Amino acid sequence: MSSTTALSVTVANTKSVGLQVRLRQIAPIPLNVDFHCRAGELIALVGPSGSGKSTILRCIAGLATPRSGTILFNGRAWLDTASGVTLRPQQRPVGLVFQHYALFPHLSALQNIAVVLADRPKVERERRARGLLELVRLDGLESRRPQALSGGQQQRVALARSLAREPAALLLDEPFSAVDMVTREKLKRELARLRQKLEIPIVLVTHDLDEARMLADRICVLHRGQILQTGTPTQVMSQPVSSLVARLVGLTNVFQGEVIDHDADKQLTHLRWLSYALECREQSHGRPGETVDWIVPSEHIILHRRDRPSRGEHENPIAGVIDDFVVLGGDASITMLVDGRADTPLTFMLSSHVARRNRLGVGEQVGVSLLAEGIHVMPATDQTQDGRPGP
Amino acid sequence: MDWSALRLSVELAAWTTALLVPAGILIGRGLASRRFVAKSLIEALIALPLVLPPTVLGFYLLVAFGGASPLGRAYEALIGQPLVFTFQGLLFASLIFNLPFAVQPIQRAFESLPADIREAAWCCGMSPWRTFRAIEFPLVWTGILSAIVLTFAHTLGEFGVVLMVGGNIPGETQTIAIAIYDRVQALEEHKAAVMSAILLGFSFVTISFIYVLNNRVERHRGEH
User: Which of A293, A340, A347, B83 could form a disulfide with A252 if both were Cys (CB 3.0 to 4.6 A apart)?
Assistant: First the structure.
């Protein structure tokens, strides 16, 4: 038993296991992509529309061919432009779930799956198709045509069909974008459940960050066909490599400051920002005197209570005026202008009852603390990649 | 009643349909699924017989097939008989002037296919042939049937091109449409009337058939 486990661990660590993708292209859509998806791992390709996410999936499936690149599965080349290897889509054992599902409209749910199993005996074909419908919890709807199924049900048929020929990798192209919110949540849970049964690499393309965060082991942040950062959802969300990534993953509170010093003993870095000297956990970026970008996620901003000042307020205290106050259900989103300056809006969330108790409202003076452990420093970008000046 | 003219027309229509519809499937499918620079030009060329006076088309085909043209000479050297004023020449002309009737319904049918179902089939491991048989054909067969019926019916009725390229040789190139004209010229109005009625009846039945079929298929698909 222990020896098998040891073996499988060794195999899983080998770089050649799983799906390795390397794509290079300048036109028609620029691509500069390297990633590796291990068996059982779910990687989310995240980026705005037009960032090349779907093109990458199409390249993996063999529906598109990049100018140059390699796609290896367990070390075997599906694509190697250098040596002229380009397997046809039929030769690549992938399951692809299309954004709009692409079900065969003239076939029932069961036939949609059975038709792709033509190489098997009829009895087995049907048995397997039924089994797959059961797996995605659609038993009972075998004879329905796609038009008679809801969006969520169609998505499940598409998923079942993509699994029909036991794919070596599963590719999902915005699989939840065409269904309503409630169905989306349900389908996400289903996918998370299904994942436990699938020991294959799964690549999910999405523009929805919450979706990626919820489902993915690792996230690749894409911008204009280029992977800017690959990491766990936590890494990407709390330690983006640049202000561009921070913006792409929806982080607010991206600012520019200047490194004062690094204190190796206390493991602290000091940062000059406006009239403040901020203390943050020790950072690897920036020599003293150098300009850097930095972020502080909303959950690391603590409101100073007006009725009962506490000791925590020594940590990077910042003063400002509330400029925007929006209640979103149980939460309140608050934007304050630091030192009253319009160019430095700091946004954070509070429980709306906390906001009420502190009588917060537009125009009120507030104080907050920026927690040192939450501040993250990145190399400065004077010009972000899309040519606009950085935040 | 001139049965040999009717038989000749039916033979011509059958040959034309049998040869042209497979080509129509290839061309129509290609035009529906691809985008390329000369696409509009090719579509215009295919549609040209719809608007060109048949005598104009017939004139150019006559020149192209005639003994003075390289094509006509090559054919005669190869087969041993001229292309113009023969059944084979008529068939060639028929293939050309029926192009829009064979291609367009099929192209429209392929264009109405959901965009990515072909790719979905490939990614499920289905070969191009199996994709066509199991996925595309069941969704475009009404278009193919329309092409068959339209090509057949239109060949039966074509007059101008046939007269120009084939002339009026009974048993060889005299089709039913020519025979009708011939009978009227000879003041045999009764014979012309019978043949006209046959053509009218046949055309009406075939066209009705297409409409009934299309409506039924649409209703059937809508129900599910």
Answer: A347
B189 min Cα distance to partner chain A (Å): 51
**Is B220 at the interface with chain A, CB within 8 A?**
no
**pLDDT score of A202 more than 90:** yes
Inter-chain CB proximity A96 and B123 less than 8 Å? yes
- For the question of whether the overall pTM of this predicted structure is more than 0.90, the answer is no
CA distance B130 to B125: 10
Asked if A152 has any chain B CB less than 8 Å from its own CB, the reply is no
User: Mutation test of the interface with chain A: which of B123, B135, B139, choosing the one with the most A Cβ atoms within 10 A?
Assistant: B123
Q: Which pLDDT belongs to residue B35?
A: 85
Least confident of A73-82, A258-267, B45-54, B76-85: B76-85
- pLDDT above 90 for B216: no
pLDDT at A390 over 60: no
Q: CA of B206 to nearest chain A CA: how many angstroms apart?
A: 26
Average pLDDT, stretch A129-134? 94
Q: Does B41 touch chain A (CB under 8 A)?
A: no
- How far apart are the CA of A39 and the nearest CA of chain B, in angstroms? 20
How many domains does the structure of chain B reveal? 1
Taking contacts as CB-CB distances below 8 angstroms, the residues of chain B near A98 are: 116, 119-120
Contact list in A for residue B125 (CB cut-off 8 A) is 90, 93, 116, 165
pLDDT at A315 over 80: yes
Q: Does A322 touch chain B (CB under 8 A)?
A: no
Nearest to A306, CA basis, from A272, A249, A350: A350
CB A198 within 8 A of CB A40: yes
- Chain B interface test: which of A106, A107, A172 (most B C-beta within 10 Å): A106
pLDDT digits (tens, 9 = 90+) for B24-52: 999 999 999 888 889 999 999 999 999 99
Residue B11 or residue A16, greater confidence: B11
Q: Which residues of B touch A105 (CB under 8 A)?
A: 114, 117, 139, 221
Which domains does chain A carry?
Answer: 2-93+167-247 (3.40.50.300), 254-379 (2.40.50.100)
- Residues on chain B touching A145 (C-beta within 8 angstroms): 224
Over residues A161-192, the pLDDT tens digits come to 999 989 999 999 999 888 888 888 888 998 99
Which residue of B lies nearest to A59 if distances are taken between CA atoms?
B123
Average pLDDT over residues B135-146: 93
